Amino acid sequence: MIQIAVAKPVIGEAEIEAAVRVLRSGNVVQGPEVAGFEEEFSRLVDGRHCVAVNSGTSALQLALLAMGIGPGDEVVVPSFSFAATANAVRLVGAEPVFADIERDSFCLDPEAAAAAIGPRTAALMPVHLYGHPAAMEALVALAERHGLALVEDAAQAHLASLGGRPVGAFGTTGCFSFYPTKNMHSLEGGMVTTGDAALARRVRLLRNQGMEQRYANEIVGANLRMTDVSAAIGRVQLGRLPEWTERRRANAKALDAGITTLVTPPVAPGAEHVYHQYTVRVPEGIGREAAQQALAAAGVGSAVYYPTPIHRLTPYASEGSSSERTWDLPETERAAAEVLSLPVHPSLGEAELDRIVAACNTLGAEQ
Ligand SMILES: *Cc1c(COP(=O)(O)O)cnc(C)c1O
Q1: Which InterPro entries match (predicted)?
Q2: Averaged over 234-253, what is the pLDDT?
Q3: Which residue ranges form the domains of the chain, and what is each CATH number?
C-alpha cells in the first residue's frame, strides 16, 4: 500500500515550462518575472507593496532590519512555531521573548503577548500557524497601544483571512514563504508585504546590496534576491492557489465531519483557515506515538509540527540567551505533546480521504 503523504509539492508541466522559458530568455535574476510576481501577489494582500526575496526566513529578517529592529530590542514571538520565526529575530541581533498560544487557534495569545511586553519590546511577531489567522484585531490594537511594530509571519497562511481582511495586510509588515511544502511555492522564495512605501523601498535596498541604481549603494545590504526562474514558477502556482485552497478547505471539512476519535481543529469566528496543516490533538488515552504507528500501518502518513517548542531548542534554551528568563508556556507545552498533522493537501482523492477517516476512527479501539 502506498502511504498517503502529509505534503505533496506540485512541480507540474506548467511550472517546468515556465522555468525553461525563463532560462532560454537569459534574463534570470530579479527581472520581469519577479516584478510580475510582486504585482500579482499584491492582490492577495489588499494591494500592499510586495518585495520578493529568496526565502521566508529572509523575508522575516529583512522586515525586521527595515523596521530598524536590532541589538537591544526584544520581539514577542510564539514558541510554538517553526524555528525560523525566532531565528530571524536572533539573526538581526534582537532577542525573542516567548509568549504562550491560544488553545483553539494554536496562535499567539494576545493576553500573553501583552504580559510579555517590557521596556525593550520593539515588535510583536504573531504566526498564522497551520494556516489559521492569529487574533489580529487584538494584536493590532495591542501594538498600537504600545507603539510597537507588528510583523506577521504568514509563511503558512497564503489567502487566510480574518473578518474579510487577508493576512499580510494587518501588520506593519507581513512575511510569506514559498518553500515547496507551503500552500504555494517558487522552489525557494519569500515575500515581504507592507502598506508603507518607504519601508518597502528599504526592503528592496536591503535585498540587493543597498542599491536601487547599480553601483550607487545607499545603505549596507545583503544579496537575498529571488531568481526569475523562481518567480515564474511562483506565478504559475499563484494562479492555482485559489483552487488549491478550496480543495484544502473541502478536504478539511470531510475530515472534520468524519473523524470521531481525535480533536479536530476549531476555527475562530470570522477566520478563513487555509489548512496548510490539518492538525488534530490526540487524546491521552490513544497516545500520539501509537496513533502514528497505527495510521502508518493503514497507509496514512502523519507528522508532528512541532515536537519541541522553540524555547527548548538548544540555541534558545542555553544560558547564552541574553534575556535569561524562564518561560511559563503551558498551552505551548500541551500542544507540542498532543498535536498531529494529517494529510489535507489538494491532491487527495475521495478514496484517500475515506482511508484517512477510517484509519483515525479505529484508533484506541483495541484497548
Ligand atoms: C516555512 C516557515 C518559515 C520560513 O520560510 P522559509 O521559506 O523556509 O525560509 C518561517 N516561519 C514559518 C512559520 C514557517 O512555516
Answers
A1: DegT/StrS_aminotransferase (IPR000653), PyrdxlP-dep_Trfase (IPR015424), PyrdxlP-dep_Trfase_major (IPR015421), PyrdxlP-dep_Trfase_small (IPR015422)
A2: 98
A3: 13-236 (3.40.640.10), 241-361 (3.90.1150.10)
